[in-house]
Amino acid sequence: MIQDINPLQLNNHYDPNIKADDDSPVVVYSEKSFLLAVNEETGEIAYPHLSELEGAAESDLVYIFGIGDEMFFLFLGNAAGLSYDRSRFSFTDFSKVRSKFFLPKHYVYAAFTALHLAEWYDVTRFCGKCGSENVNDKAERARVCPKCGNKIYPRINPAVIIGVTDKESNRLVLTKYRTGFGHNALVAGFTEIGETLEETVKREVMEEVGLKVTNIRYYKSQPWGMASDVLAGFFCDVTGDTEIKMDDQELKYAEWNLPEEIVLQPMDYSLTNEMMKLFKEHGYGGTV
Ligand SMILES: [Zn+2]
Predict the structure, then answer these.
(1) pLDDT score, position 180
(2) What does the alpha-carbon distance between residue 160 and residue 236 come to, in Å, rounded to a whole number?
(3) Does residue 1 form part of some domain?
(4) Residue 70 and residue 163 share a domain
(5) 177 and 134 share a domain?
(6) 142 and 197 both lie in a single domain
(7) Do residues 172 and 257 lie in contact, with contact meaning Cβ atoms separated by under 8 Å?
(8) Could you tell me if 100 and 199 lie in one domain?
(9) How far is the CA of 147 from the centre of ligand 1 (A)?
(10) How far is the CA of 192 from the centre of ligand 1 (A)?
(11) What is the DSSP letter of 26?
């Protein structure tokens, strides 16, 4: 999955005392794109180091996380005011970063995570209560309003990924979205205010494919910065009628699949793909 970068680890402990130096990688994000050096032949990407960005003031940089011994900073200023070697660095759309096998993998994971933080910093420039300009809190990852004291923490949207299984026939429900991502997926959806994750599982399965489920069992979770999510994967068993009634507003395909029929996603980044792969290799028995 995207977060599997062993032996490296993401260290997201908030420490405002960590200062950028010339060699610090800087994430410059603007309009869904990252400033990167992309080597199309080797598939390698690189972030600019601070020394390669002219016009990036220290006050425009915020420490976001460390990976290995590299400390990543997010540039919060106006990207149009930066000077850099344009023969080496250019803005690369995030959709390209996520859809190719770029290396090193931990830089791709850094992009997913930096995207989540960049979007949060972008939408919290001003206080939602009084409209004043927020500042960064000194002790924790938060935005605070100097006028009214309103504090805003990073927003993480909980969502579930659901492998609906039929023990009797050893099949799994696969779906395809009507628009956007074109590959096989599983039933999925956001948790609504006031419900448990297990209730989200039941509601989403009923809404998307019209099935009742039982024996809901947790599998694994995944941070998914591109939608500001944390995803929780569950398997569950269909109960009663197994006939699928697809929500054709959201989906264009929803069918029961035998393990050998499952076609995986091209990128092995997602929890969804890992869950489909588990069923493809081990069938129902792999999910219990
Ligand atoms: Zn305020």
Answers:
(1) 80
(2) 12
(3) no
(4) no
(5) no
(6) no
(7) yes
(8) no
(9) 5
(10) 27
(11) E
Q: How many angstroms does the Cα of residue 159 sit away from the middle of ligand 1? A: 30
Is residue 111 located within the same domain as residue 32?
yes
* pLDDT digits 0-9 by tens, 112-140: 999 999 999 999 999 999 999 999 999 99
| Distance from the alpha carbon of residue 228 to the mean position of ligand 1, in angstroms | 24
Q: If residue 261 lies in a helix (H) or strand (E), which one and from where to where?
A: none
Say whether both 88 and 134 belong to one domain: no
Tokens of 173: 């429900």
Q: Which residues surround ligand 1, an ion (CB under 5 A)?
A: 127, 129-130, 132, 145, 147-148, 150
Largest CA distance in the chain: 64
Q: How far is Cα 158 from Cα 189, in angstroms, rounded to an integer?
A: 9
Distance from Cα 141 to the centre of ligand 1, integer Å: 17
Dist. CA 135 → ligand 1 center (Å): 11
Residue 23 lies in a domain: yes
Q: Residue 69: which domain range?
A: 10-123
- How many domains, the chain? 3
Distance 134 CA to ligand 1 centre (A): 8
Domain for residue 185, yes or no?
yes
Residue 119, pLDDT score = 95
CA–centroid distance, 122 to ligand 1, in Å, is 16
pTM, entire model: 0.91
